[in-house]
């Protein structure tokens, strides 16, 4: 598993964003500098990675209603080159 690259410290999960596009997304942050990192798990290949998340995206992810979350996470994944 790739670790967040900011502090090489532990990551704390904060918000389960569910699955979209064959990936499971969990938002969390570095326990040292509090930068946000998305834990992305690919169900098909059984691999996972961390992606940095902008504060603007974090705000949107926290506020978006669950029915719209899946579509938003899919488009976020596409922007990150995952899907
Ligand atoms: Zn950090």
Question: Would you write up a description of this structure?
Answer:
A four-stranded antiparallel sheet has the order 1-2-3-4, covered by helices on one side. Helix content is 28%, strand content 37%. It is of the alpha+beta class. Zinc ion binds at residues 6-7, 9, 30, 32-33, 35.
Descriptive tags:
about 80 residues, alpha+beta, 2 helices, binds zinc ion
Mean pLDDT: 92
Distance between the termini: 19 Å
DSSP strand tally? 4
Order of helices and strands: EEEEHH
Q: What proportion of the residues form beta strands (DSSP E)?
A: 35-45%
Q: Can you list the ligands bound to this structure?
A: zinc ion
Shape: globular
Assign a percent range to the helix content.
25-40%
Strand order of the largest sheet: 1-2-3-4
Number of structural units classed as domains: 1
List the helices and strands and how they pair.
Elements: E1 11-20, E2 23-30, E3 36-42, E4 47-52, H1 55-63, H2 66-79
Antiparallel strand pairs: 1-2, 2-3, 3-4
Bound molecules: zinc ion (ZN).
Question: What would a concise description of this structure say?
Answer:
With 83 residues, the chain is α+β, with helices and mostly antiparallel strands. The protein contains two helices and four strands; from the N terminus they run ββββαα.
């Amino acid at each position: 598993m790739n670790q967040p690259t900011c502090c090489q410290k532990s990551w704390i999960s904060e918000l389960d964003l569910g699955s979209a596009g064959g990936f499971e997304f969990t938002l969390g942050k570095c326990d040292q500098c509090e930068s946000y990192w998305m834990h992305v798990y690919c169900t098909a290949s059984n691999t996972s990675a961390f992606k940095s998340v902008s504060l603007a995206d974090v705000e949107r992810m926290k506020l978006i209603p669950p029915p719209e979350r899946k579509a938003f996470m899919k488009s976020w994944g596409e922007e990150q080159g995952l899907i």
